[in-house]
Write a structure and sequence with these properties.
Length: 484
């Protein structure tokens, strides 16, 4: 097989390699994706010789800055099409048992291909003038690509033990590409699970992100479960498995339900963090599960416990403990709220409160709730979806009227402190809460005058007096407001 190599940078690499008297090949993911017709990103070039030296020459020819990573023996330039082209000398590697850090010596293309993770990732093509674009495939990677198989070039125990992340990568590629992992590799993952201990959680969570961004993430989580990696990587998800029965009554399998919710949400969002929220929305269920006579199985407060557990999961996987995590927590915490707004007689106040609590994430919350419908009965699904349509309409009507979504309190703590000459104290919180409640309950309109009047009323109830500063002026609230 020969691939088209008309790309300018390939021609330059080819010419410079010839001048240096070394052989260069494109290898790995770029080759795989080109053959699969997937958008191909970064280009890895392996050189039978000095990779960074070739990069320097190519950089000089194309005018690209050359970044040298001396510690890794690699160098990188940018192609004119904006790809990152990374150069490395072909290596022969052997790994020690207790670390991911290999000892490296120079090798041939074949040595380099042999130490790659999967046959489909060991494919390379030539950049030599005489056979430009010719695919070098010593391990039948092309056939595995055609048959949709993930297979290691070496005995899987060796490949996985060398870098245990490859066990998760195998599962990730299977999920992303819709491929199968060959049975001997699948069994090897189970055997080598102990090696996971040397991995940094950041690398694992990168793979989880890619699984979640795949067309059917459930495939990946099921493979993790089958190979027993799930209980190591995401024990909170693994704990959702199973059904308990009492008095002949069982609850649904929250693990299966969760995976279905994640698959359901895929066509509706490319937001990774919303997909994480789908994955974690019920993780509070095992801790809150009760069997109550007459009622059956309940999971009271699982959304509150779940939101707290989101922090634990993020911390465990060393994912960012920032606004992304808070967003996931918020969606987990609120995921039961929209269903409560389904009844006909629901008040505007309840709708306003949800708009206030969800803010700009209200649409994402509704997307999550719709994905959360997993009944096998199409009529039931259609009924729930219609109900959520109704909720969406109510949310829209109330938002148009009251503009609660980006609610900013018309009176701030600062204003209250200045008006009454007080320092931070309980009373400020009481006044602010009272104004917020009055607006959300529709007792006063969402505007400054009404909020100020209520501030005065409440402050006088609390025994506060408006302060006059040392020049004798009253630092009145209207002035502060017009400054604000
Ligand atoms: N590789 C490997 N073992 C790893 C990681 C990577 O053997 N643990 C090799 C594979 O040949 C892979 C190449 O390095 O194709 C590039 O790795 P990377 O950029 O991480 O993956 P890609 O295969 O390019 O796929 P993706 O960009 O989707 O991660």
């Amino acid at each position: 097989m020969k691939l088209d190599c008309s790309k300018h940078v390939f021609k330059i690499i080819s010419e410079e390699a010839e001048i240096m008297g070394v052989r260069a090949y494109v290898i790995g993911g770029y080759v795989r994706d080109r053959i699969l017709g997937r958008p191909s990103k970064d280009i890895d070039v392996v050189v039978e010789g000095d990779g960074p030296a070739l990069a320097r020459r190519v950089g000089a020819r194309t005018g690209s800055h050359v970044a040298i990573f001396a510690r890794f023996g690699t160098a990188m330039i940018h192609s004119e099409d904006g790809e990152e082209v990374e150069f490395v000398g072909a290596r022969k590697e052997s790994y020690s048992r207790d670390s991911r850090k290999p000892s490296v010596s120079r090798g041939t293309l074949r040595d380099d291909q042999l130490r790659r993770d999967f046959t489909i990732n060991a494919l390379s093509f030539s950049l030599q003038k005489e056979d430009m674009g010719e695919v070098y495939d010593p391990f039948n990677g092309l056939e595995d690509l055609r048959n949709g198989l993930i297979r290691t070039p070496l005995d899987p125990d060796t490949t996985f033990s060398d870098d245990p992340l490859r066990m998760v990568r195998a599962i990730r590629f299977a999920t992303q590409l819709g491929f199968s992992i060959v049975p001997e590799a699948l069994e090897s993952i189970g055997r080598n699970r102990g090696r996971m201990a040397i991995l940094s959680p950041e690398r694992v969570s990168e793979e989880l992100h890619k699984i979640l961004m795949s067309p059917r993430p459930s495939v990946g989580f099921d493979l993790m479960d089958r190979t027993t990696l799930l209980e190591l990587i995401l024990p909170a998800l693994s704990a959702l498995k199973g059904v308990e029965t009492q008095d002949g009554r069982g609850h649904k399998d929250n693990y299966r339900h969760t995976l279905q919710v994640v698959d359901n949400i895929v066509p509706h969002t490319d937001n990774l963090w919303l997909r994480w929220a789908a994955l974690l929305h019920d993780i509070g269920k095992p801790a809150t599960k009760r069997y109550e006579k007459g009622l059956g199985w309940t999971f009271h407060g699982h959304e509150v416990v779940g939101a707290r557990m989101v922090y634990e999961v993020f911390k465990y996987l060393r994912m960012p403990l920032n606004e992304k995590m808070k967003y996931v927590q918020k969606l987990v915490l609120l995921h039961l709220r929209p269903i409560a707004l389904v009844q006909e007689e629901v008040t505007d106040s309840a709708v306003r409160r949800l708009l206030f609590d969800a803010g700009d994430d209200i649409d994402d919350l509704m997307t999550l709730c719709e994905a959360d419908i997993t009944s096998k009965n199409d009529r039931t699904v259609a009924r729930h979806l219609a109900n959520f349509q109704l909720v969406r309409r109510k949310l829209q009507e109330v938002e148009e009227k009251d503009r609660i979504r980006n609610f900013q309190p018309p009176v701030t703590g600062e204003m209250i402190m200045q008006t009454y000459g007080i320092k931070p104290c309980r009373e400020i919180g009481i006044i602010k809460e009272c104004i917020k409640d009055a607006i959300l309950d529709g007792r006063i309109p969402n505007d400054r005058d009404a909020a100020l009047a209520l501030m005065r009323e409440k402050a006088s109830e609390l025994g506060l007096k408006e302060s006059h500063d040392r020049y004798g002026f009253c630092a009145n609230a209207e002035k502060l407001l017009s400054d604000a």
